UniProtKB/TrEMBL annotation:
The lineage of its organism: Bacteria, Bacillati, Actinomycetota, Actinomycetes, Propionibacteriales. CDD domains: Sortase_F. Residues 44-72 have a biased composition (Low complexity). InterPro entries: Sortase_dom-sf (IPR023365), Sortase_F (IPR042001). Keywords: Membrane, Transmembrane, Transmembrane helix. This is Class F sortase. It comes from Nocardioides furvisabuli. The chain crosses the membrane at residues 20-38. Residues 44-85 are annotated as: Disordered. Gene3D superfamilies: Sortase (2.40.260.10).
Amino acid sequence: MSQPTGRHAARQGRVVRRLAAGVAVGTVVAVLVTLVVVRGGAAPTAGGAPVVEPTPEPVAQAPRPALAATAPRTGSVAPESPQRTVLPSGTVVPVVAVTTTPDGKLDVPSDVDVAGWWRGGSRIGDPFGSVLVSAHVDSERKGLGPYAELLGVRRGQTVVLTSDTLRQEYVVSSLRLLAKGPLSAHPWVYSPTGAHRLVMVTCAGPFDPSRGGYQNLAVVTATAVGEPTPRSE
C-alpha cells in the first residue's frame, strides 16, 4: 500500500503527532499479517508452519455404551459472514470478505470507506474465535476515512456487526498498541479459538517515512453481548 506523499503526508504527520499528545484521532492502513488457516487441530501462527499440539498416549478404557445423537444447542444460529460495521459514533462501514495475498498480507479493500473481514476467521454466530476486521483509513484522494475514530475508542463503547439476517453487539474491552509487523507473537488477534470476540486492527503513530510509515498497530478488542439477534433493518 502506498504511503501519503507531499502535502498529504505532512498533514498525516501532524495528525499522528496530535494522536501522540492524546487527541482521539488516528489512521488505519492495511494490516501486514501472515495468517495461516489452521486445519486438523494445528494451533495457528502468522508465519511459517503451524505448531502442532503433542498427541497424548492412548489410555485403555472399558467399553462404553453408544450415546444418542446430541440435540442442537438451544438458541443456536447458523453463522453468517459480517456485512457491515457500526462504529461507536454510529458511522456505518460496509464489510466484504477478504483473504491473504500470495506474500501473506491481509488483502484489505482499496476503498477507504469499505472494511475487510478475514474469511479464515470467525463469523457472527460462531461460538468461538476472533472476527477479524480491518480497513484503510486514509487515501490520497479521500483523506481520512471512517476508521480514523478507532484510535480514540474507549472501554465500554459499543460496536455492532450485522450480516444478512443477524445482528451482534459488542462492547469495547481494550485498545492495545503492538509494534508493526507479523502477529505470530499475538495469535489471539486472529485465532479461531477462545471466547467469541471482535478484533479490529489499525495502524498507529509515530509516523516515520524513513522507516516505512506508521510504526505501531492498534488492536481494538470487543466482547460479544449475549447471542446474535435477528437483524431488523
